[in-house]
Amino acid sequence: QLQASGGGLVQPGGSLRLSCAASGITLANYAIGWFRQAPGRKREGVSSIYGSDGKTYYDDSVKGRFTISKDNEKNTVYLQMNSLGPEDTAVYYCAARRAASLVVPVKMWYDKWGQGTQVTVSS
Q1: pLDDT at 107
Q2: pLDDT tens per residue across span 8-32
Q3: What is the 3-state secondary structure (H, E, C) of 46-60?
Q4: Which partner from 4, 64, 102, 108 sits 20 to 30 angstroms from 78, CA to CA?
Q5: Would you say 9 and 120 are in contact if contact means Cβ atoms under 8 Å apart?
Q6: Which residues are registered as beta bridge partners of 3?
Q7: In terms of DSSP H, where are the helices of 9-66?
Q8: Hey, what's the torsion of the CAs at 53, 70, 74, 96, to 10 degrees?
Q9: CB 34 within 8 A of CB 92
Q10: Where on the phi/psi map is residue 40: left (φ > 0), alpha (ψ -120 to 50), or beta?
Q11: What are the two backbone dihedrals, phi and then psi, of residue 84, each rounded to the nearest 5 degrees?
C-alpha cells in the first residue's frame, strides 16, 4: 500500500515536499515513481528512484527543480518540489513496481498505486 501526502496550495515560486509512505513492501526491492495528472491531461511520469541504490530519474520538465529521495528505514520516498509554477498544478501520485534496477516512470510499467495528493500553484 502506498500513501501519498504533502500536497496543498502554494504560490508561484514556492516549494512543497510530497511524501509516499509504503507499507507491505520493502523499498530496497522496488522502484518508486512520482506521476502527476492535470485536468484534461494524461498522467505523466515526473521522477523515479530505485530503492536499493538510490539512482534517480527526472523528466525534463522538472529537472533542476524537483528532487526525489528515500528513507528506507521509514519506507518513505519524498519529492521535494522547488520553484513551482502554475504548470505544476496537478494531482500527484506515487507508484511502485518490484524491480532489480531503476525504472523510468512510465505509467504502464508500475503496478502499485497510491491515492493522489493535490498540488495547486496559484497566486
Answers
A1: 94
A2: 999 999 999 999 999 999 899 999 9
A3: EEEEECCCCCEEECC
A4: 108
A5: yes
A6: 21
A7: none
A8: -80
A9: yes
A10: left
A11: -70, 145
